[in-house]
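ESCALATION

Customer reports they have been waiting on this structure for their group meeting. Please prioritize. Original submission:
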Amino acid sequence: MSKKIDRAYVFSVMSGNFLTSHLPHDWTEWDGDKLEKFFEEHAWEPLEYWDWNDVYELIDICTHDVMHLLEEKAQSEENEDASDVA
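Update from on-call: job pushed to the front of the queue and completed.
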């Protein structure tokens, strides 16, 4: 059985696709102002004029997709393990 991956961790990793630096792993403890400032200071050039909430949403969509893929993979592995036992 595979280890469950934390959504906040995946979000942090995905942030590097839209920001010039990945969010640190403790980003969920930040208040909204600190998060907004980080997004504005680390905006990737093609997105530098976007509202930070829109960039956040892009990262969130990617995170959702990755989490879905990981869940599908875990389910597939569980099904394979169950069929091996039978």
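Sent to customer with the following note: The helical segments are 7-15, 32-41, 52-85.
Escalation resolved.
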